[in-house]
Design goal:
CATH architecture of the largest domain: Alpha-Beta Horseshoe
CATH topology of the largest domain: pyruvate-formate lyase- activating enzyme
Oligomer: single chain
Order of helices and strands: EHEEHEEEHHEHHHEHEHEHHEHEHEHEH
Number of helices: 15
Structural class: alpha/beta
Radius of gyration: 25 Å
CATH class of the largest domain: Alpha Beta
Number of domains: 3
Length: 435
């Protein structure tokens, strides 16, 4: 049973006498455990809704248009608690966090429902055969899956979970049922790279067309790994990063020839580590893995250059602004700023490379910069009327950095407006223009 926390006024549920505090038991005879059950069985035009009020069960009948809501609200988005991760992955970033951060940052979810609804990655280690059957029955597609390796013994070692081997079988069940999958491989130097990576790519490619794309990204490492007594990992060197790129691109080209799509893509961070140019936007075939840091820079570059070319403003008011980013994206933002200023020379843009002292210098992505590092490294520097930062540095509400600093505190300390920006070239152009 799931408690109803509110009933929308004028809704079909209110008209049928359902009240706040009632408990939802089933819809058309199907028990309701969470949001997926609820949404799936709510699609019918005629509903028989079984409820409980003060210990007594009763049924209401509702007629509605297909897919329409009936007006019930619940305590949580999922209608129950998030499913937590049962793994102890050797590369887990959360295990590398320092003590004293917000409690929510230490929670590890591994929830198939969030994979479908929000794009989160799951390892499948806490799924049962019944869970897999439900996913297939409800046509929850695509599912985002953290694979890392298709070698059963190696996957058990990497995830530190005996279920890591058996759960690989679910990949084939999904593929056979036509459930589309987006997969991720977090690459650890000397562990699942080289021949193991080749094996994994081959195994996953065999699941096409259900296998939509696979992103290969390097394991992130903070300075707290040793302090937290974690498995010793070392970063890829420049030459090793180049080798990973060559290996994946060669396999991807073979897939393009055989299947008509590349399937496998290397994360932007590998190209930046290798100091190699990131492929053009066309290479990424629709940017399926952009949220995983694959093709993000190519997409933003294409958008920004289109916005710049299409701009119908002969000139814009003189202004001075600044951009702060991590080491990895610094050259990219310098290039965009130079392009902008070449067309609009009355705009002055300062681009600052921020070293991640909070997590350690091996962390170079902009999204993990903290207010503390921004404050310490930008104090006293010319910033102009606004400082643009990645919106990924802030929590969902857009107010707090990972270190706990509020955006208003940083703005006051630096004496300028702090403007979070999405990884969107059109938006970035508008911000620089002052539109």
């Amino acid at each position: 049973m799931v408690e109803i926390t509110d009933v929308l006024k004028g809704s079909p549920a209110e008209r049928q006498g359902i009240r706040k505090g009632d408990f939802l038991i089933s819809v058309n005879g199907h028990k309701i455990a969470d949001i997926l059950d609820y949404r799936f069985y709510l699609c019918e035009k005629k509903l028989s809704v079984l409820l409980c009020r003060e210990g007594k069960e009763f049924t209401v009948k509702i007629k509605k248009a297909e897919y329409d809501d009936i007006g019930l609200e619940f305590a949580t988005f999922l209608m129950d608690k998030k499913h937590s991760c049962r793994n102890k992955c050797i590369f887990c970033f959360i295990d590398q966090l320092p003590r004293g951060m917000r409690d929510t940052l230490y929670f590890k979810d591994d929830d198939s429902r969030l994979s479908f609804l929000q794009g989160n990655y799951i390892t499948m280690t806490n799924l049962s055969d019944e869970d897999v059957s439900r996913i297939i029955k409800m046509k929850m597609s695509p599912i985002n899956i953290s694979v890392h390796t298709t070698n059963p013994e190696l996957r058990v070692f990497m995830l530190k979970n005996p279920n890591a081997a058996k759960s690989l079988d679910y990949l084939r069940r999904f593929a056979d049922a036509g459930t589309e999958m987006n997969c991720q491989i977090v690459l650890c130097r000397g562990i699942n790279d080289g021949a193991e990576l080749e094996r994994t790519m081959h195994d996953l490619a065999c699941m096409h067309p259900a296998m939509i794309h696979v992103s290969i990204v390097p394991a992130g490492m903070t300075k707290f790994r040793e302090e937290n007594k974690l498995y010793p990992l070392t970063p890829f060197s420049k030459e090793e990063a180049k080798q990973v790129i060559r290996q994946v691109e060669a396999f991807a080209e073979a897939c393009l020839a055989h299947y008509g799509q590349r399937i496998f893509y290397v994360g932007d961070e590998f190209y930046q580590q290798a100091e190699l140019p990131i492929p053009d936007a066309e290479y990424y075939e629709g940017f399926h893995a952009i949220e995983d840091g694959v093709g993000m820079i190519a997409s933003m570059k294409e958008e920004f250059e289109c916005a710049l070319a299409d701009a119908d403003m002969d000139e814009i008011p003189a202004r001075e602004v600044s951009v702060a980013t991590g080491k990895a994206a610094y050259p990219f933002f310098c290039a965009l700023s130079e392009q902008f200023c070449a067309k609009y020379p009355n705009v002055k843009i300062h681009v600052y490379e921020i070293e991640n002292r909070y997590f350690g210098e091996t962390v170079t992505v902009a999204g993990l910069l903290t207010g503390k590092d921004l404050k310490e490294q930008l104090l006293g520097k010319p910033l102009g009327e606004a400082l643009y930062i990645s919106s990924n540095t802030l929590r969902y509400e857009g107010d707090l950095f990972l270190c706990g600093m509020h955006i208003d505190e940083l703005s006051e300390a630096l004496g300028t407006e702090i403007v979070p920006c999405l990884t969107d070239g059109y938006e970035f152009f508008d911000k620089l223009s002052g539109i």
